[in-house]
Design brief:
Blueprint: H1 9-17, H2 25-40, E1 59-63, H3 67-77, E2 79-86, E3 91-97, H4 107-113, E4 124-130
Parallel strand pairs: 1-4
Antiparallel strand pairs: 2-3, 2-4
Length: 137
Amino acid sequence: MNQTIKISANLYQRLGAHAEGFETPEGVIERLVTFYEEQRGLENTALTKPMKEMPLNLDIIYYPSDEESFKQQLLQKKVAYLLLHKFDGSKEIKEWNALNFSDQSSVNGNLRSGYLRDWQKKGIVKAEITTDRNDFN
């Protein structure tokens, strides 16, 4: 369940100064809380604990559950969302603008040459992809 929090404009700007790339405010907060917990020797209270070693294969989960059905929705909506699960237990949401995606395009090929390129170096262990961002709630 998502919660809404209100913060001052000043704190929001401070938070933004700690963002890496296109990281969301949630991603920055999660990274800072994880750092704080590690520094204090506190147990990670997140539902997902960091893995012990990187997997050899990347797990890609489509909503709907098969790649072809997902492709048909992507062709209609021209936008998709990726929930990237990281080795350290953090998560990140990316938006895929698929205006140039066509019936001849490969979903898997586009993902692996774009957002999922060098997935091991980026610390990605699982990717969920949907055309409806609410699927992640």
